[in-house]
Amino acid sequence: MMDSDPPFHETYKTLFADKGSSTTDISPKNDRNTTVEDRELPLIDLSRLALDDELEKERCKEEIARAANEWGFFQVINHGTSRDILDKMREEQVKVFKQPFYNKCREDKFMNISAGSYSWGTPTATSLGQFSWSEAFHVPMTDISSSRSLNTTFTTSVEQYATKVASLAQKLAEILAEKSGHNSTFFQENSFLSTCFLRLNRYPPCPVPLFGLMPHTDSDFLTVLHQDQIGGLQLVKDGNWVAVKPNPEALFINIGDLFQAWSNDCYKSVQHCVVTNPTQERFSAAYFLCPSYETVIESCSKPSVYRSFSFKEYRQQVQEDVQNYGYKVGLPRFRV
């Protein structure tokens, strides 16, 4: 434990002391297999989109759509975000998390990030199976824009990173909309930098096998993830959990709940989680392509699998379910 680490053991000592919360049994609600196979996600070279060869461009787009349909996750290389930007972003992220714990959880602004953006553990957990051994800053992009005049290395690095991955997210969303035969301008018209979020994650070393992040689906349109080489990301494929092999050259993309609903189940938002490492800390940064709270999500084809709902309504329902049941129910709540 460092003075920058959250007081996990002290705060959640009743969970660790509860014999019914065995640290060797962290199976989520959907019955986790004990054996997890290592797999490589579909790897897509986006430089093909800039070629003069129209046939090769279409093949690239088709691979993106197929991965989103069959996996819900894929990785991309030659994505337009330089190694320098990624490294500077990671360096600033590490500095933020190495601050004393007291500073990170202050009620006023910390590092020009809105109060309440910092979180750790799982306040609603009633067992270790509902507990996440991690800490995070959930940063609205409006915070970064409003702090631009301060010209700190943190603000500059985050803004450079977010601008690049935001452009990538929009490009991929348009391609996925196009390949499903529907309005590719929907995401430009409803998702802006000001409505999106960046989540900076740290997973401290954990002496017992626990979730760094509980099994869940993302509630956005699309997520762009930059992770280090420690590993720990797992997802469900064909009913089984698989461990994702890290790739130093790639950014990882996954479909969120809103895209699954909008595409009428053409693209899949799949459960994923992070498992802890006993000796090494892990860092990642996730950019969430989100609409405004007032945006109405309607299935783009008929018959609709889901009823129409606003992003605000969806977020509220998720928060209520987590509070009442300890886990997210998600899209099944909104089926026709």
What does this 3D model show about the protein?
The protein is 31% helix and 21% strand. With 336 residues, it is an alpha+beta fold. It has a single domain (25-303), classed as B-lactam Antibiotic, Isopenicillin N Synthase, Chain (Jelly Rolls). An 8-stranded mixed β-sheet has the order 2-3-11-8-13-6-5-4. Strand 9 (233-237) and strand 10 (240-244) form a beta hairpin. It is an enzyme of class 1 (oxidoreductase). Its EC number is 1.14.11.13. Belongs to the iron/ascorbate-dependent oxidoreductase family. GA2OX subfamily.
Query: Looking at CATH, which topology would you report?
Result: Jelly Rolls
Radius of gyration: 20 Å
Shape: globular
Q: Summarize model confidence as the mean pLDDT.
A: 89
Distance between the termini: 48 Å
- What's the number of domains? 1
Q: How many E strands? A: 15
How much helix, percentage-wise, in residues?
A: 25-40%
Strand content: 15-25%
Task: Look at the helices and sheets and give the structural class.
Answer: alpha+beta
Largest sheet: 8 strands, mixed
- Total helices: the number is 10
* Oligomer description: single chain
Which residues form runs of ≥5 with pLDDT under 50?
22-33
Can you lay out the helices and strands and say which pair or pack?
Layout: H1 8-11, H2 13-17, E1 37-39, E2 43-45, H3 54-70, E3 73-77, H4 83-97, H5 101-104, E4 118-120, E5 135-140, H6 141-146, H7 153-179, H8 186-190, E6 197-203, E7 211-216, E8 222-227, E9 233-237, E10 240-244, E11 251-255, H9 257-262, E12 272-275, E13 282-289, E14 296-297, E15 309-310, H10 311-325
Parallel strand pairs: 1-10, 2-3
Antiparallel strand pairs: 3-11, 4-5, 5-6, 6-13, 7-12, 8-11, 8-13, 9-10, 9-12, 14-15
